[in-house]
């Protein structure tokens, strides 16, 4: 995993600082739109959240059977304190995850994680996600994205993200298509209170 966690960015490893920044930039609204328009989870579905962070996505999901894991133990502890009754949480590295639940999930999420991973790690995540899905299951991802003609402000902010592997739409799709025969991509410029560009992938085996 390639990311900057030193200097000012180090404070984002703390759950309270991370959540405050997310509120300031309007991430709650973006999660609501993501859930309503792209994730579209149903009550009772089994959901695996890879790199779940503080699991704030649960504020916008219905009553699902949720399992999340993240590399940051502080994020996992925060998720457990806030949402302990709504899911299972564990501290795990996506590159070493041994879920023991192959083929058991209706929906897999990987939100704001691909741009932290190199190409090999992304393909490994996609393979992990596909192996965790039931037949007909789906993966939804959400990341920063470079596009031709995007605003200078958006590119400036993306360049300074903790993750060092933001790609173009074609770059993300090419990696997903190594593993999934069906890949949809959606680019959005309107999900935060600041200039920013996101890509949402919907992948199905």
Would you kindly provide a written description of the structure presented here, covering whatever features stand out?
The chain is an alpha/beta fold. Helix 4 (119-132) links the parallel strand 4 and strand 5 (133-146). The relative contact order is 0.16. The protein has helices at 15-25, 27-39, 73-83, 119-132, 152-159, 169-176; strands spanning 46-50, 65-70, 87-91, 105-111, 133-146, 167-168, 182-188, 198-204. The chain has a single domain, classed as Rossmann fold. The protein is globular and about 40 Å long.
Mean pLDDT: 89
Reported by name, the CATH topology is Rossmann fold
Radius of gyration, CA atoms, in whole angstroms: 16 Å
What is the quaternary state of this protein? single chain
Note the main sheet: 8 strands, mixed
Q: CATH H level: which superfamily?
A: Vaccinia Virus protein VP39
User: How many strands appear in the DSSP assignment?
Assistant: 8
What is the first-to-last residue Cα distance?
25 Å
Give the DSSP E fraction (strand runs of 2 or more residues). 25-35%
Helix-strand sequence: HHEEHEEHEHEHEE
The percentage helix is 25-40%
The number of helical runs is 6
Number of domains: 1
The secondary-structure class comes to: alpha/beta
The global form is globular
Low-confidence stretches: 5-9
Task: Map the helices and strands.
Layout: H1 15-25, H2 27-39, E1 46-50, E2 65-70, H3 73-83, E3 87-91, E4 105-111, H4 119-132, E5 133-146, H5 152-159, E6 167-168, H6 169-176, E7 182-188, E8 198-204
Parallel strand pairs: 1-2, 1-4, 2-3, 4-5, 5-6
Antiparallel strand pairs: 5-8, 7-8
């Amino acid at each position: 995993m390639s990311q900057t966690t030193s200097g000012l960015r180090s404070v984002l490893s703390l759950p309270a600082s991370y959540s405050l920044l997310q509120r300031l930039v309007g991430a709650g609204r973006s999660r609501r739109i993501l859930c309503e328009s792209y994730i579209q989870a149903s009550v009772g579905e089994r959901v695996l959240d890879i790199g779940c962070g503080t699991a704030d996505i649960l504020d916008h999901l219905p009553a699902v059977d949720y399992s999340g894991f993240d590399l940051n133990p502080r994020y996992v502890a925060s998720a457990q304190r806030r949402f302990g009754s709504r899911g299972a949480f564990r501290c795990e590295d996506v590159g070493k995850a041994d879920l023991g639940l192959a083929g058991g999930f209706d929906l897999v999420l990987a939100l704001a994680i691909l741009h932290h991973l190199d190409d090999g790690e992304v393909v490994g995540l996609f393979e992990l996600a596909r192996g965790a899905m039931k037949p007909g299951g789906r993966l939804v991802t959400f990341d920063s994205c470079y596009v031709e003609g995007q605003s200078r402000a958006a590119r400036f902010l993306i360049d300074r993200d903790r993750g060092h592997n933001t790609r173009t739409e074609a770059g993300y799709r090419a990696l997903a298509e190594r593993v999934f025969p069906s890949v949809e991509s959606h680019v959005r410029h309107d999900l935060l209170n600041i200039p920013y560009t996101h890509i949402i992938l919907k992948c199905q085996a």
